[in-house]
Amino acid sequence: MDKFTCNLYLITVYQYPNLKLTMKFSQYFRLLALSIILASCSSDSEPTSETGKSGIPPEVAPLPTETYFPPISRANEWETISMETLGWNEDQVSNLYFFLENNNTDAFIILKDGRIVIEKYFGDFKSDDNHAWNSAGKNLTAMLTGIAQEEEYFDITDATSTYLGEGWSSMPLEQELNITIKNQLTMTTGLDYTVDDIFCTDLECLTYLNDPSTFWYYHNAPYTLLDDVIANATDTDFNSYFSEKIKEPIGMQGLFIKVGYNNVFFSSARSMARFGILNLNQGNWDGTSILSDESYFNAMTNSSQNLNPSYGYLYWLNGKSSFRLPSTVEEFTGSLIPNAPADMYAGLGLNDQKLYMVPSLDLVVVRLGGASNEELLGPSNFDNELWGLINQIIE
To answer: Where does the Beta-lactamase-related domain start and stop, copy by copy (predicted)?
Structure first.
């Protein structure tokens, strides 16, 4: 057997360990492998390309633990890692796919240390198709707010009126001036959430109900106005600022598009996964600082107030003592998603758009699609059912 054929064979076997071999070729390879092992024991032997510089054969080399960052200039290139290599239970994957397909899923991805372990598309949906993030896109706005503060365009303790102008609401000026950017980030503006349309940003929809910071309610209109705060403070188009500061530096694609009163982000599932990697690396992309303010990042991904400990700066947080949900004033005891890791934080959007990030496991999980059951804002029963199935694979 010539050298080229031997090398090709070695590579093939290592990459495809389950490949069936002819008896004659298999016996030949065992002899060849034995000779390589014996040669490697010699004190003057050089490591081959198959063993690497450490001299350790690939099959016993340690799992990669450093974060992988998919290249920016080559969007379709992305390193993968097998469930077998990770020691995950591949037998349970069919149950996961059945659940996803029967709950209107279009795209699903799991990353481990940045590498793709599972990537599955359903129906006619393709990897380069764009999908609405819905309120999972609030995470993007939260990080962009931190970047704008870091660049000294504003401080989140500033009054919202400083950047929207006085009279952006129907409240008396004294009440309006009490609302800050931080109140917009934490859903504590005190604006009346009993209006007919909580998405409405018209003056007549923005009225007083509670003093700021005294009540938590998932009110979308104050969040949407954050986009105007950022655009006015930076004196630039919101999409342009986002593209310059987050999208382009990490190789995302996508766009915020006005849908009714809402500003909805659309992108591919892989772009959402890229943003997940950025989060797990606390605002750093392969050595490039996207958000350097550690204090802001920690505040963003931890309890931002004591009214709803399961909410940060537009991020949902797991593992807290209690939580509140959209469309209700009721407080619930326990963790937001009991089956999910306690340190998980997430972007959760209407109709079960999901971006889960788990620092302790270095996992990013993406789900895009239609509503699994009811059309709910943010968290739903789907979260806990999905994580129950994920656990059967990764544990």
So the answer is: 107-322
